Amino acid sequence: MTHENFRTKLEAIGFGLFIPIFFIASGIRFDLTALLAKPSNLVMVPIFLVALLAVRGLPAMAYRDFLGGRRARIAGVLQATSLPFIVAATAIGQSLALMDAAEASALIAAGLLSVLIFPLTGLSLLRHTMSAEGTPAPEPTRPEPSPQMAM
Predict the structure, then answer these.
(1) Can you give the three-state secondary structure of 27-49, one letter per residue?
(2) Could you say which residues of the chain have pLDDT below 70?
C-alpha cells in the first residue's frame, strides 16, 4: 500500500476487470426494440435524464456556500452521472415484474446518455468558469514511468 503507483494499479484492476464483470454479471439488458416500439417509450428517455439531473444534481446546491453558485452547478452536473445503479435497479425491477422491458431500456438509455453528456457538460462549464475567473485550466499530466513499473 505504500508503493507510489498502488492507487493507479488498483484503479486499473477495478476499471479494467471488475467493472466489466459487473456489467456482464448483472446482465445489462438493453432492449432497443422495446424502446422503439412506441413513441411514448422513447419520450421517457429525456424525462428520465432530467429526473437524474434533478434527483442526483440538485443536492449539490448544498455546496453553494462553500463552492459558490457556478461551481455548485458544475458539481451537480457531474454527480448526476449514473449508470451502474440504474443497471442493477432495472434488473431487480424486471425480475420482480415491477417494470417492463421498455421502461428498463428507457432508464438504461438515460443512464448511458448521462455518462456521455453530463461529464462533457460539466468539464465545459468548468473551463468556462475558470476562464471567466482568470484561473488557468489544469493540463492533464502523465506520471513519469518509474523503474518499478517497467518490471
Answers:
(1) CCCCCHHHHHCCHHHHHHHHHHH
(2) 1-3, 14-29, 137-151
Residue labelled with grid coordinates 488498483: 10
Helices 39-52 and 101-133, packing angle to 10 deg: 40
Whole-model pTM: value is 0.70
CA distance 14 to 11: 5
> In the chain, how many domains are there?
1
Domain membership of residue 5 (yes or no) is no
Domain encompassing residue 89: 29-133
pLDDT digits (tens, 9 = 90+) for 65-101: 888 888 889 889 989 988 878 888 888 888 899 998 8
For residue 84, tell me if it sits in a domain.
yes
Q: What is the largest CA-CA distance in the chain?
A: 58
